[in-house]
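hi support,

uploading two proteins for the ticket. first:
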Amino acid sequence: MTSLKKQLQALEKTAEMVHGPHAQKKIKIKSVLFTEDEAANFDDDAIFDIGLAGLDNLLHDEALRPFQKTLFSEDSKQTDREHLTAEENKRLDKEIDAFILCLHPHFLDQNCQQALEWLVKKYKAHQFNAETLAKSFLLYHSTLEFTNLLSVLCLPSPSPWSFLAKKATDITREEIVGACVKDIAVLEGLFDVALEREGASPTALVPFFTQLSLEYIEKKQFSTDNRSLLSLFRMASLGLENSAELQTGSHMIFFALSPYVSGDGISYYLDRAALHSRPRESFATLVDSLSTCGRTLPQNLNLFK
């Protein structure tokens, strides 16, 4: 029996002794660890202990350590979002969003699920930070953990992320690509997560974002949607200023996008790529590929065709 299971059984017995075996059973409480009825047996102190134990086991990742003194402090037990001012809630959301981003590489770890349980119980993160949770962990769309998370999220509608609402089964890649085609804000959200996580523990997020972008370009009709073209060009250009992995992804995206980009657009991108690319071989490969495809650099005034 795992230590968590032993701890939960002890907490359940305590709850029954204090409240009776059927107390609070009618209360529906959102949880990523328990059923709604099971979650009703645990008060804030119990869930805090579970969440803190999870965080403690993740502290080998130094990025998570500052949150011991904020979201997981003893004082945090007294937090009540309904009594905070708009400005206080805004600051709290910023702190929670930062913590969620730091949890990204640990999502499949049971300790991460325990930490998320505290966010849901105390801070109602499934309501106030639902979109951050969705985009930060979309990489894990085919896992049971992500399906469990979706079951508690209160995603706004309409929203770029509403395609995830009330999903009881795995989200397929095809569904995600379709959502991106419908609203490029989904891709933009994933790119934002990739940028925020620059220099942090590596995951498969950048390859995931790159592949989605390539499938998006294959399906999208840019002749009727210049905003999407501009957005992809912006993301590819910004990616050049970051890690070698994101630069390589940017080159792949730009190459797929290049038939829709004017000579000035190509010149602009290549100038930035020449300045930032590492290793240099990736830049040389991009230039050779563009040349092989017959892309020239006409001197026109329009960035895009």
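and the second one:
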Amino acid sequence: RLGKAGGSRWFLLFVFAKFATAVIMCVVAAQPYVLTYTYVTVTPENVLYINATSTRLVLFVDISKSMGYTDTYPSRISNAVELVEKIIATATSRGDYVDVYVFSDIVEPLCISLNSSTVDACMAKLRGISLKKYSAIGDAFIYGYMYARASRMPAAILVITDGAYNYGSSPLEALQSIKSSRVPVALILVGNDPRSHELEQYCRENGIPTYRVSMGSGEEEALRYVSERLYSELKFEALVVSGQTKFQVPVKDYTVQLYLLALLVPLFILSLAEGL
């Protein structure tokens, strides 16, 4: 009887080992993990890749007649439109918001609170817009400043223009007010208009991110680089100004798989011992 009882126990142990081996192998195949949380500090390098607070970009596009000039390929306004499209794609894919305005002698809203589902409609409106006589760059900066200050979320201003202004407020005076308020602002100059040199020099001397885009045929990839780099700078500065540079992010800990594998080895050996 004792022999039968002992054999029965070993039989049950072998059955358990085989069953447990199969279960653990299925669990390991599912790649289990333990979800933990850690704090990450935002930097210009990682700001586009972590789940930070949503920001708002207030974007202004110059639609004056000189934006139709072809000193850049295929034209200044075409470069501006391509930049807008790439910046919007970068922002909305990360859960951020973009408001697009156009300006000539007045500033007009084109698309507000863009998301991934409304980008195509907005770009169609921008591509179909007619160029006008005047360019009030200073008014665009002032409008953006007022809008960003009133925003409940971290916000930044971006103006895309050829730098040739002939109407409204002085852009240099507008930028002085914005700079003292610490609202993040950046400038993209398209083409090589000599009338833009004063504005460009002021921005560079005062630490305002400024890019000049003058494209040739086949250089479209450079627009993607400019748009992503500039957007990451603006988003980072918006988060810094709002004091939101540390975020709690989820981390998947796969260490549990190692423990399961360590348990699997003796169980697997035991399951094979029945035939010895």
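thanks. also noticed: Residues 2-29 form the longest helix (28 residues).
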